[in-house]
Automatic annotation (TrEMBL):
Residues 20-79 form the RNA polymerase sigma-70 region domain. One of its GO terms (biological process) is DNA-templated transcription initiation. Residues 120-170 form the RNA polymerase sigma factor 70 region 4 type domain. One of its GO terms (molecular function) is DNA binding. This is RNA polymerase sigma factor. Residues 188-288 form the DUF6596 domain. Pfam families: DUF6596, Sigma70_r2, Sigma70_r4_2.
Length: 442
């Protein structure tokens, strides 16, 4: 195995094992920042030793053992809280005395409580959302600071500061490294799911930059969602979120033209949709719906309902076969449990497909003064599309131009301006006066 192959192997092992490693260390040390530092030390040791000695048979167990040794050394050198440190050091030494297979078994346990505690710690409400996202990708996604910065088009020092401040805040606020209970669990779980979906959405429809999509972020969010579904198998909304992401991710190949331009849902080549992801998504949706029914919460929570909407598109072989009546009903159910002008805007699109553009436009026009949509470029974009279908070319052009000015994504901006130009051309064609002689000859 070449040095390059070994480095690639180390990178793959780190992506797989880092979250479990940090989670186990954080439980022992009660300090997420120190846990990550020691895990990084173990990674550095692997980078130094494995190219010479080769990759061990149990790389995850090797990293854990190395990190624990570093933890013991760090605690022995520390003069603060000596008694507590000695107790932890003895605990670590006792655990280290067990066979490496025992460590590997603990690492490979998909229901690892330590990992679940780390999920809820990274998404703790004392942290602002942008810090939760950065810390989640760093601790649970195994991404480097540079990778996170490039994914979100943010300077690397900014991401580094967010992560440092987040860990400092967790320490200063003495956030307990534990699972929330009772009603607090539901509140905190909603925050965890929101962070994962935010990461997915930034990959699925980038808010800024030159690319329509950033598939790497979608993959990271899917990995986090699947992991959470294994850790919390009896939470229907977890499966609902996974179903939603799986089905949406299935369209990725069809959402971008060969030249990088966006392809909208109804114009996509459905033969390019990933059937494996659709199958997985539908299975997760079925699980979410059955669990919701067992709890008496049919038709489900917001992620389950959104997944059901996505499933209507996934089941339609062609755009014309889409069950728009079912989608309108699902958006209505979604609006009842989580009222939102964005949901109402999406319902307007479904209404226009079911009953015609006038019905959708009436709903959209009622949203134009909604403060929450003041900077939401999809409001004028949807309005422009409906006006275009009604052949109100000048109004449609103005709406597309406004939407283009509001978005920060270069690909989306180009698409909207092209649609505005099409409306301009159509308006100009209608303004041409055909001479009487031409009419007679026609």
């Amino acid at each position: 195995m070449t040095a390059t192959d070994i480095h690639r192997t180390i990178d793959a092992v780190w992506r797989i094992e880092s979250a479990r490693l940090i989670a186990s260390l954080a439980r022992m040390l009660r300090d997420v920042g120190l846990a990550e530092e020691l895990a990084q030390d173990a990674l550095v040791a692997a980078l130094e030793k494995w190219p010479e000695s080769g990759v061990p048979d149990q790389p995850g167990a090797w990293l854990m053992a190395t990190a624990k040794h570093r933890a013991i050394d760090r605690l022995r050198r520390s003069k603060l809280q000596q008694r507590k440190h000695e107790e932890i050091a003895r605990e670590l030494e006792d655990e280290q005395a067990h066979a490496d297979d025992a460590h590997l078994d603990a690492l490979d346990n998909p229901f690892n409580d330590d990992l679940l505690r780390l999920v809820f710690t990274a998404c703790h409400p004392v942290l602002p959302t942008h810090a939760q996202v950065a810390l989640t990708l760093r601790l649970l996604g195994g991404l480097t600071t540079d990778e996170i910065a490039r994914a979100f088009l943010v300077p690397e020092p900014t991401i580094a500061q967010r992560i440092v401040r987040a860990k400092r805040t967790l320490a200063e606020k003495q956030v307990p490294y534990e699972m929330p209970r009772g009603d607090e669990l539901n509140e905190r779980l909603a925050s965890v799911l929101a962070v994962i979906y935010l990461i997915f959405n930034e990959g699925y429809a980038a808010t800024a930059g030159d690319d329509w999509m950033r598939p790497g972020l979608c993959e990271d969010a899917l990995r986090l969602g699947r992991m959470l579904a294994e850790l919390m198998p009896n939470e229907p909304e977890v499966h609902g979120l996974v179903a939603l992401m799986e089905i949406q991710a299935s369209r990725s190949a069809a959402r971008v033209a060969p030249d990088g331009e966006p392809v909208l849902l109804l114009e996509q080549n459905r033969a390019r949709w990933d059937q494996l992801l659709i199958h997985r998504g539908l299975a997760a949706l079925d699980r979410a719906q059955k669990q919701s029914a067992a709890r008496g919460t049919t038709p489900g929570g917001p992620y389950t309902l959104q997944a059901a909407i996505a499933a209507c598109h996934a089941r339609a072989v062609t755009a014309e076969e889409t069950d728009w009546a079912a989608i309108v009903g699902l958006y209505g159910a979604l609006a009842r449990i989580t009222p939102s002008p964005v949901i109402e805007l999406n319902r307007a699109v479904a209404l226009s497909m079911l009953f015609g553009p006038e019905s959708g436009l009436a709903v959209v026009d009622a949203l134009t003064d909604e403060p929450a949509l003041k900077d939401y470029h999809l409001l004028p974009a949807v309005r422009g599309d409906l006006l275009k279908k009604l052949e109100r070319w000048d109004e449609a052009r103005d709406a597309f131009e406004r939407a283009a000015q509001m978005t920060r994504n270069a690909r989306e901006q180009a698409l909207l301006r092209r649609r505005a130009a099409e409306c301009e051309a159509a308006a100009g064609a209608n303004d041409v006066v055909i001479p009487p002689s031409s009419k007679r000859s026609a």
